[in-house]
Specification:
With about 400 residues, the protein is of the alpha/beta class. The protein folds into three domains: about 10-45 and about 50-60, no CATH class; about 70-210, no CATH class; about 235-390, Ribonuclease H-like superfamily/Ribonuclease H (Nucleotidyltransferase, domain 5), CATH 3.30.420. Helix content is about 50%, strand content about 10%. The chain has 16 helices and six strands. The protein has helices at about 10-15, 20-25, 50-60, 70-75, 80-90, 100-105, 120-125, 130-135, 150-160, 165-190, 195-210, 280-295, 310-315, 325-340, 355-365, 380-390, and strands at about 235-245, 250-260, 265-275, 300-305, 345, 370. A six-stranded mixed β-sheet has the order 5-4-1-2-3-6, with helices on both faces. Strand 1 and strand 2 form a beta hairpin. Helix 5 (about 80-90) packs across helix 10 (about 165-190). The longest helix has 24 residues, at about 165-190. The N and C termini lie far apart (about 110 Å).
Length: about 400
């Protein structure tokens, strides 16, 4: 501009710019009564600083960036870290779903479970029929499942705003379980029931809450010795069973030991079993294998003890069990009913079930079968002697 005047310096402009650009510049009016002001919208003061510029550059360019409140909620979610990390990946669309694999030329992008549509994160979480069925089983409202969401982060923000922290922890735990179930099907062709996803998520949230719950009383608790093995009355047999699951090898095992009223070992065995689902299915297999074992030995009265409290409670419940786990227990329930009271099932704590647990652990890590009668193997001989010394 001409110094001291509110007009352009045409001579200087022509010395540096083409005539067409100069004509355009000359058409821009100059307001001499309005001073230039530096305004930076990314800081409350309106002034630019190096720190505010750094924070601005750190912001992701994606329009999917969720509100900061969602990340704060995920960081404080009362669940294990891997579930929180999974929630972060969901909000950032950072899951290796079919649409991403298709872009990389590794897949056709279709959903491996329902085969309908493109498998993106929205389809995996709320839209796939298996996912919506599991969330409905857990009691979540249809408003989370029936709306047409534009992005995954919008759906997660809605869930975070409408659910309590405990319900939101269960919500993400179920989504994490569904993702694991989907991967198990893709990589191993093994698809366990949906109800196990919900039950495992509920157990996970309960265990986490119990582990971090403050003590109810500051007073020291009295030292109570753990429960020990106790024999049955004369003429009856006690059979202890246990099931174990080794996730790293996808291997399960069953251990069984039968003792009479004097504590003498009658028979027992330990062997690996195939696993087609989570750890709870191994306990179901252990019970059914033991019932067949008891029937084959023809004992007139046998008490079967297991440390799987959920399984024992379901079997002892007089009402009809309509859950999917109840369906898995139906064959065992039928064998118990057919025995006309000869076979009974009870609960034993882990300390009172040590021999069966040791057998199961051995079979799980050795992938082998052992069977014995009156002479028990060395790996449980000390446990059997300890049970006898604490009883008689």
């Amino acid at each position: 501009m001409v110094p001291g005047q509110a007009r352009w310096d045409r001579t200087k402009l022509l010395a540096h710019l083409p005539p067409g650009d100069v004509d355009s510049i000359l058409e821009v009016p100059i307001f001499p009564d309005r001073a230039d002001t530096l305004v930076w919208s990314d800081h409350d003061s309106g002034l630019y600083t190096v720190r505010s510029g750094y924070l601005f550059l750190r912001q992701p360019p994606s329009p999917l960036s969720p509100p900061l409140r969602l990340w704060k909620i995920l960081a404080k979610l009362p669940t294990i870290p891997k579930v929180r990390s999974f929630g972060w990946c969901c909000g950032r669309e950072a899951l290796p779903v079919g649409s991403r694999l298709r872009d990389a030329g590794l897949s056709d992008g279709a959903c491996p479970l329902c085969g309908a549509g493109l498998e993106d994160v929205l389809h995996v979480l709320p839209d796939c029929p298996d996912s919506s069925a599991a969330l409905r089983q857990a009691g979540f409202a249809d408003s989370l499942l029936t709306a047409d969401w534009a992005t995954t982060v919008n759906w997660l923000v809605f869930a975070a705003s409408s659910l309590s922290m405990s319900s939101l922890a269960l919500f993400f735990s179920i989504l994490w379980g569904l993702w694991r179930r989907r991967n198990t099907w893709v990589h191993e062709r093994s698809l366990y029931p949906l109800h196990l996803v919900v039950e495992d998520a509920v157990s996970l949230c309960h265990d986490y809450t119990s582990a971090f719950a403050p003590p109810r009383s500051p007073l020291p608790l009295p030292l109570i010795p753990p429960p020990r093995w106790r024999p049955t009355p004369v003429g009856s047999v006690k059979v202890n069973i246990d099931g174990a699951f080794l996730p790293s090898a996808r291997l399960g095992a069953v251990g069984v030991i039968a003792r009479d009223s004097s504590g003498a070992v009658l028979r027992g065995f330990a062997k690996p079993v195939p696993v087609h689902g989570p750890a709870s299915t191994v306990e179901v297999s252990a019970l059914f294998v033991d019932l067949e074992f008891d029937i084959a030995n023809g004992w007139p009265s046998a008490l079967i003890e297991s440390d799987a409290v959920v399984l024992v409670n379901k079997l002892r419940r007089p009402t009809v069990d309509l859950s999917l786990l109840g369906d898995l227990l139906a064959p065992s329930r039928a064998l118990i009913a057919a025995s006309h009271g000869c076979l009974r099932v009870g609960f034993a704590s882990r300390s009172a079930n040590s021999a069966a647990h040791a057998l199961t652990s051995w079979a799980c890590h050795n992938d082998n079968v052992i069977s014995f009668s009156s002479v028990c193997p060395e790996l449980i001989s000390r446990i059997v002697l300890d049970d006898l010394s604490s009883t008689f």
